[in-house]
Amino acid sequence: MKHETIETNAGLLIALTLVVISIGGLVEIVPLFYIDDTVEEVEGVRPYTPLELRGRDLYVREGCYTCHSQMIRPFRDEMLRYGHYSLAAESMYDHPFQWGSKRTGPDLARVGGKYSNDWHVRHLIDPRAVVPESIMPGYPWLARRDLRYDDIERRMRALRIAGVPYSLTEEEFAANVERFGEETARQLDIARARENLEAQARRGNYDGDPSRITEMDAMVAYLQMLGTLVDFTRYDEGYFVEFR
Length: 244
Description:
This protein is mostly helical. It has helices at residues 2-7, 10-29, 50-61, 76-82, 117-125, 141-144, 152-161, 170-180, 182-187, 193-204, 215-225, 233-243. The longest helix has 20 residues, at 10-29.
């Protein structure tokens, strides 16, 4: 009888439905405010260096995420094609993340180190020069344009506000040394941002032209680090057992 009263009274049914949804939402959301970190940290994961950060900005600017995902799902066919499934921690410093929802091209979560710098440069300039069946457009202007990085400090400061541990103070730098090691901590120091960007570009010579720093340098630097931070050999054994 009570059910009939509720079901035949549209206003009461809507009110009670909202109450139930609200309670369910609170049960799921409120505990998160009392958890220090909802994403388990994984050894090796670090924020982007200044050069990689600019490369990621270019990746977003050119809309690469519309055709390439960066999320390998925990299915056997995905693992066989792309490698170990993606971990939440790998995207903990992404604002926004680049998981994507469509694969016109392959997933890029593990593309780092898979090809040489020269291959990436040729592929970005003329995709069909290295992959004849590719339908990807070329991005030759990346090799022609000098990289703008006069605002790199401001970009890092903005991400610091969002929670990325770039350092501004000696205390933050010391914390990063303890967390990531001194070499990485120096790369995350905002005061050294331009110096670090230029040094990595010269050292990596990603576009094959050491006389200048181009957008191609930054883009290739970003692509070459994707999926390289975590030692997945520590996870693979259990993963293969699961799918046998």
